[in-house]
Amino acid sequence: MTRVGVIGATGYAGAELVRLLCGHPGIELTILTSRQYAGVAYDAIYPAMKNVTRLVCEEMLVDRICDKADVVFTALPHKLPMTIVPDLLHRGKRVIDLSADFRFKDAVVYESFYDSHKAKDLLERSVYGLCEIYFERIRNADLIGVPGCYPTSVLLPLIPVLKSKFIDEDTLVADSKSGVSGAGRSLSLATHFCEANESFKPYKIATHRHNPEMEMVLTRETGAPVTLTFVPHLVPMNRGILTTIYAGLRQKVTVDNVVDCFLSFYSECPFIRLFNENKSPDTLYVRGTNYCDLGFKIDERNNRLILISAIDNLVKGAAGQAVQNMNIMLGLDETTGLLGVPFPV
Amino acid sequence: MTRVGVIGATGYAGAELVRLLCGHPGIELTILTSRQYAGVAYDAIYPAMKNVTRLVCEEMLVDRICDKADVVFTALPHKLPMTIVPDLLHRGKRVIDLSADFRFKDAVVYESFYDSHKAKDLLERSVYGLCEIYFERIRNADLIGVPGCYPTSVLLPLIPVLKSKFIDEDTLVADSKSGVSGAGRSLSLATHFCEANESFKPYKIATHRHNPEMEMVLTRETGAPVTLTFVPHLVPMNRGILTTIYAGLRQKVTVDNVVDCFLSFYSECPFIRLFNENKSPDTLYVRGTNYCDLGFKIDERNNRLILISAIDNLVKGAAGQAVQNMNIMLGLDETTGLLGVPFPV
Amino acid sequence: MTRVGVIGATGYAGAELVRLLCGHPGIELTILTSRQYAGVAYDAIYPAMKNVTRLVCEEMLVDRICDKADVVFTALPHKLPMTIVPDLLHRGKRVIDLSADFRFKDAVVYESFYDSHKAKDLLERSVYGLCEIYFERIRNADLIGVPGCYPTSVLLPLIPVLKSKFIDEDTLVADSKSGVSGAGRSLSLATHFCEANESFKPYKIATHRHNPEMEMVLTRETGAPVTLTFVPHLVPMNRGILTTIYAGLRQKVTVDNVVDCFLSFYSECPFIRLFNENKSPDTLYVRGTNYCDLGFKIDERNNRLILISAIDNLVKGAAGQAVQNMNIMLGLDETTGLLGVPFPV
Amino acid sequence: MTRVGVIGATGYAGAELVRLLCGHPGIELTILTSRQYAGVAYDAIYPAMKNVTRLVCEEMLVDRICDKADVVFTALPHKLPMTIVPDLLHRGKRVIDLSADFRFKDAVVYESFYDSHKAKDLLERSVYGLCEIYFERIRNADLIGVPGCYPTSVLLPLIPVLKSKFIDEDTLVADSKSGVSGAGRSLSLATHFCEANESFKPYKIATHRHNPEMEMVLTRETGAPVTLTFVPHLVPMNRGILTTIYAGLRQKVTVDNVVDCFLSFYSECPFIRLFNENKSPDTLYVRGTNYCDLGFKIDERNNRLILISAIDNLVKGAAGQAVQNMNIMLGLDETTGLLGVPFPV
Predict the structure, then answer these.
(1) Confidence of residue C278 (pLDDT cuts 50, 70, 90)
(2) Partner residue opposite A187 with nearest CB, options D187, D237, D238
(3) Does the predicted interface ipTM exceed a cut of 0.90?
(4) Which among A121, B6, B313, D155 is placed 20 to 30 Å from C278, CA to CA?
């Protein structure tokens, strides 16, 4: 059975990986590391995990990790993965990185939004892990850059209609709303309960680091430069991203056109659920799941197509998509361990 | 002292009117009516009001209302005000209506989104109560149609920049997010705690009844037909609307241009607070207040102007703006009774 | 494979049953009924279930149910199960009822808190489905009365210490706090988002119908009459009950005494997790799980033992415990389908 | 007009003081200090205060404070006030301290739960600022120790019935539930949005520092040693404390007995609101107000009296009570500036 490790297991993305991997029937979770909690039992950090795992957090030591694991997830703040991933690959491990470090092909773009890159030679080798789009490349990859949560919620609804030439790529606006877990487990005034509760606000307006990531993929997929205006907002709830996309129509389209576009594009994709025109996706429906729910509305008066997507930012937006990548790399069914039934409320 | 009555005092807008009027130093609140709770003490319906008011809800009887009040607020579902407002006006009362019944000049528009109109002859006489824009007309009015909550949040940021010709009126998108009190006190599955909590979703996508109201005002103000795409969303919090508006720029503008535009346009307006480019409005900052906070960002890459507004939907979006109208009509300072200090959290 | 039906599948307890049964590897879910939604696809009522189940809600017809299912869960308001359960039993079905109808041995007690009983002859046959206490009886039962959510949270911490004679049964106080889903999916002002949010309050103080249920079991287990003061409160969250119990100590006890008492009593019980004296249970840790977390503190100054329990009211407090009963009745491992890994947040 | 300063104006209690003092018609707020934000405009820290105050936070310099203010509120972590209060008193200022530093008469008790005391000579001079009980002493005081939030919620319901000899003082249990703002604005994992949301838990079970404070006052008021078991819990909401008290009855009492006891004891107290036996207090009803709502239930079966109190922890539990103390000291009506009308939701 494939042995799996999680580097950075105590942040929310790492903890969600642990949740999914503990329930995954096709692998064995063998090692967890944490810079902050090395030596501490995992269930002392997350008491919900009492009786579920007996693993104890360890230091991030490459030898030890390589002894214990065949596949390694890195769930660290950007800049850290690039310091350890080369070693892991060198030892023949497959690596699935949840940070931004291996998402970009072009180090210049990365460096202008993040930091200087220390492992540029790996960027070409790395595969952008948006499973519904890059399934084939993922199958043969040994290094995955898992997409950001916002890009996942923007790219999945947008790519099919952009490729269908329905919409004018100069008109794109993506207005995203995320639950607070997207900001991570680090303490800040913005995520203090009393400041986030009963509050709704945008942040990093048109300057978020996920913006170039989206544009890189859209440009690659359409073959022409695509830019978009992206504004994220913070919602007083734990989990979920809902993105509303506004796009000018090039031509008159019907509901059937749009439905056909999505159904044919995603015909093989078990985690895409298309809602009909009269029912909108809701973050509540995807909580804890790897689904990306899609909805749409044709605004005939203004000649626009409105797209809606909903994901759980910690699952399809992070840990779930990471596990989906692992499944594909290992030749497992891509849904393995990812079909937990959603809560009604 | 002016005697004031509230028709429909037990819905959320009505209750917020009662809150503001009980604390208003320039008037006396003399009568409350409620179809559902006639005969019940107001503080039995809202126990928070124990020791604050001893008023008892009454039936909606025109004679009784006219005996008790000089100014009448109607906070009823649309279609009901038009059945009683003509009588009230006929008896010389001034009426401030919070429904949609007297917002439109053109009965056809009203009828296509609401119902058949029974008091069309009053539409010309009625003034649209957006105080920052129609102050002079309000002063001399005896019938006010208080703007909807969403239109208030869209019109206040948009009118100045549209009138400044900065933006292209064919590119307008307004993405609004509202707390649950906007849906009123009536029971529905959508407002059941367990279904609204930990949920974020759009509704009435590009088909909301506030859409024509916005377009009517924008068209009137700019002198040319304006349409916009409007999508409202439901946020798991009690109060607040935050609207994000996306508009294509006609020309290059600077931060100073936009700041000047707003500051000069709203120089006399005590409830408009302009945030600088690096700090966004937040519904938390306006909770319980009559402020409309404005923010903006120039998205140079995409040649768009992004506008942000935040209001409390029950105050500036309903009861507070209604009281502001009353103040103006009565010749009081427009801030009277509306300067309660906001909560820090 | 055992075929299973859920009668009353669209309330929250029913929906949680559907969630757990859809993920249960040892049975097949074959029929759902709903008085309100007969004829409607289940995923139209709970869109989260899209792609998860294709079942359509049906009328509650005994013949049809008996054709389709070997085990039947009844998740109906009390008074309704007693009208259908006799028929189901007569046809040889095993029935697990989530209402109060089959919890009491003494119809007089039931009738004084609920309604007149129409199936009194079944009360002796029915087994009270508190699995950790009545495992053996459940194994051989064909009719289970699943305990109420509050009683589960009170009985599991209290029975071991009462049987150990540590505490004085005349001193018992149970102060419980429940998430809003405990009030069900029916609409009411108390569960309207705006009224429940930012609110905390008790209800049915010392008069809740779960009070006699607790006392019946405690009396049976200790062999002498036990009464207790029980006060439930409503917490602004979806799921979870936390109960704090105060009990006078008969004698001096040590931390080890209490730990030993629980560990020995629950040594075979996979869903009981004992927290040490310095860490308290939290509803967050049990959300979505069938665990009952227990904690305690000895208040030496006041000679009291304080017990804490936390459960998910919809799982261990309803649907999860119901499935645990089914597992036991069917000879499956009692944890089958109930070990979904908890969310970190 | 009396000039007032707030030392420690940026924590939640300090910010709530600023809110109340900005709206107070009888004083002038002249100086704010903050260790963390000295030099920063107050409305940059709390943007809600834009246009409300132009004050800028200053360093905590005694000379400057004494120049600017006649009355000084100290809203600092315990241990800090005792370093500055002696100087302020020496200069003839009246001081209202919101920490624990001046609540105790006996330094030994303080030191066993907090720290070594540096200003023991002031303890006798200081008055415990529970206004409904110590009104006369407060009138003549120049140093007030404002009660803790939990003690306020426990003492106000308990003192009248204890003094009436209804209840047995050996049986007292107080189960309190507080909103998250009670934990202050300092960052911690316990107050991180994702960890506090959808969570309910007790903390510092029977070991909270407010326990001896309650017992000190109860003992003083009854003339005999009183102890009680006190357990605080954290509720996922911003504001409010609801306390449920369980007390054994010495004798049979009627509803009228209890009502009479409260009404006569609090006949002169404008902030006490007594609810009848069939309606419970709710934190929602007191949000933002200085009210302490009281309710009760006689549990005849178990011969206990159950008392309920609800306050806003930041108002009657901190800043509001502090202002009420100031009003009394200054000979103003005690309600001045404290009668803001509560929100309906």
Answers:
(1) confident
(2) D187
(3) yes
(4) D155
Listed in sequence order, the DSSP H helices in C179-254 are 193-196, 210-222
CA A189, distance to chain mean position in Å, is 25
> What pLDDT digit, counting tens, does each position of C42-87 carry?
999 999 999 999 999 999 999 999 999 999 999 999 999 999 999 9
Please tell me if residue D331 touches chain B, with a CB cutoff of 8 Å: no
- Of B23, B286, B289, which is closest to D340 when you measure between CB atoms? B23
Amino acid occupying residue D59: E
Q: Which of A149, A194, A269, A292 is catalytic?
A: A149
Among chain C residues, CA nearest to A314: C345
What pTM was computed for the model? 0.98
CB-based contact, A318 to chain D, within 8 Å: no
User: Residue C176: enclosing H or E segment and its boundaries?
Assistant: strand C173-178
Domain residue limits, chain B: 2-125, 149-312
Q: What is the interface size between A and B, counted as CB pairs within 8 Å?
A: 148
D200 inside 8 A of chain B by CB: no
Cβ–Cβ of C270/A342 closer than 8 Å?
no
Q: What is the edge-to-edge ordering of all strands in the sheet holding B94-97?
A: B27-33, B2-7, B71-74, B94-97, B143-145, B127-128
What's the CA gap between C12 and C240, in Å, rounded?
A: 13
Contact (CB<8Å) A192/D197: no
Cβ–Cβ of B206/A306 closer than 8 Å? yes
Concatenate the DSSP letters of all residues of D84-134 into one string.
HHHHHHHTT-EEEE-SSTTT-S-HHHHHHHS---S-GGGTTT-EE--HHHH
pLDDT at A277: 82
Pairwise CA distance, residues A48 & A42, whole Å: 10
How far is Cα D283 from Cα C57, in angstroms, rounded to an integer?
40
Instruction: State pLDDT tens for residues B92-145.
Output: 999 999 999 999 999 999 999 999 999 999 999 999 999 999 999 999 999 999
Q: Which residue has the tokens 């202050």?
A: D184
Distance of CA A74 to the CA centre of its chain: 13
Residues D237, C345: C-beta atoms closer than 8 Å: no
What distance in Å separates residue A72's CA from the closest CA in chain D?
27
DSSP A77-142: -TTSHHHHHHHHHHTT-EEEE-SSTTT-S-HHHHHHHS---S-GGGTTT-EE--HHHHHHHHHT-S
C-alpha C202: how far from chain center? 20
For chain D, how many residues are written?
345
A26 pLDDT higher than 90: yes
DSSP A309-326: EEE-TTIIIIIHHHHHHH
Task: Write down the CATH number for the domain with range D2-125.
Answer: 3.40.50.720
- DSSP code for C274: E
Quick one: pLDDT at residue C31?
98
Residue (of C98, C125, C148) closest to C326 by Cα position: C98
* Residue entry with tokens 């689904």: A291
Instruction: Report the alpha-carbon distance of residue A215 to residue A84 in Å, rounded.
Output: 28
Location of structure tokens 């942000």 = B308
**CATH top-level class of B149-312:** alpha beta
Nearest to A233 by CA among A194, A176, A195, A188: A176
φ, ψ of residue B58 to 5 degrees: the values are -120, 165
C248 touches chain A (CB under 8 A): no
Report CB contact under 8 Å: C342, A238.
no
Active site residue C149: yes
Question: C interface mutation test: which of D168, D169, D199 has the most C CBs within 10 A?
Answer: D199
Please, which residues 82-141 of chain A have a Cβ atom closer than 8 Å to chain B?
A: none
User: What is the distance in angstroms between the CA of the first residue and the CA of the last residue of chain D?
Assistant: 35
CB contact A345 to D (< 8 Å): no
How far is Cα A317 from Cα A286, in angstroms, rounded to an integer? 11
In order of A182, C257, C292, the CA distances from C245 in angstroms are 37, 18, 15
Cα B142 to its chain centre, rounded Å, is 18
